[in-house]
Fold this protein.
Amino acid sequence: MLVALASALVACGGGSSAPPQEVLLVNSVNSVNVVDLLVDGGPDGNGVNRLFTSVTICKPGSATLCKTIDQVLVDTGSVGLRLLASEVPTQLQLSAAKTTSGNVLLGCANFLDGSFAWGPLALADVKLGGLTAADTTIQLVGDSGYDRFQSQCSASGDPIITPSDLGAKGILGLGLSKQDCGSACAVQGRRSAQNGRYFSCTNAACTSVTGTTLATDKQLQQVVARFPTDNNGLAIQMNSVPSAGAATATGKMVFGLGTRSNNQFPTLQVLATTSQGYLLGALSSNSTLAGGSFSSTFLDTGSNGIFFDSNLPNCGYPNDSGFYCPLADVVFSVALGSAGVGQARKSFTITNAAALFQKGNTALPTLGGTLNAQGLLDLGLPFFYGKTVVIGIDGMATTGVGASTATGPFYAF
């Protein structure tokens, strides 16, 4: 199963400024399976490369007890809907998700930047566009009623409580897997109960919490997989952005693959991933400082840059220390594929981050930074600009993507 990787490194807001080239976006008029995407500064105006959409949640079965929440981060590197508890009105009367003995369930997610999401699970109807994932488990992050137990999730990281902490009002995890943990958290046993993802109160008063197993249908879900139709995957289509950046960026998210006339992508190349959701990646560049092979490569809209370990110069402490500041632009060619399978080759550019931030733009297609994890290549939101990228959900068969039928997990672009 995929590891949650949203909010990898958030920064506040060089290069040439060629006019952007638009990608062909689907017509969203009267399309129930399409929603709008927007990159802007987020709730506090300080974010960069933060991809947002709006999500509507309702009390299960209700058409009136509903709330639409904007500025929810779209994250293809995690699975499950996690909303800040402060954004979910008590008037919705969402039911708490509980164990068979009636005790409250809680969830935990740790992210690459050291932050973590802790809070109770609840049940909601989740609506995106005209499609609904009924009676779906979500997480309410930063609920003050349970923060005294947050050390169960992380003893040293920073808890996500407010929109400023996250740079968003929630995380919509739309990764390759159907659940955020799957069978590893569902099998009964002492070891699987200490999975680090799911916990339960030990009694009705919740005087303490303990690790617990959780059936796959009770875990946080890939929302698209729970739609009644158009549920085998999704496509993210982002318009191009000039290399110097732009004040905002726009795109569309399309649900279903080969299920309607607006989600046929026969010319894209399908690349099957490992069961953990990784591709093989090989970087070459016009610099002697950068390049190499990466056994664990993934595509992650929740990361605001392209992150990997290299000898490119760091911007320096304290303001932009997580990002690269090369003296001149470094152009990379990346070959992506799976063992024994053909490759796709794409390119990207890394620009001096300090110079980019001075522009004050929120959409930065040449932003990259350090990732102290050997073999890991995080192709964040900059990789998505100007492309159609398809996410094929694990175990789901698709037609209309690539030259033949494909079964997830896979990426296609």
Observations:
- Residues 258-412 form one domain.
- Residues 1-22 have pLDDT under 50 and may be disordered.
- The chain has three helices and 26 strands.
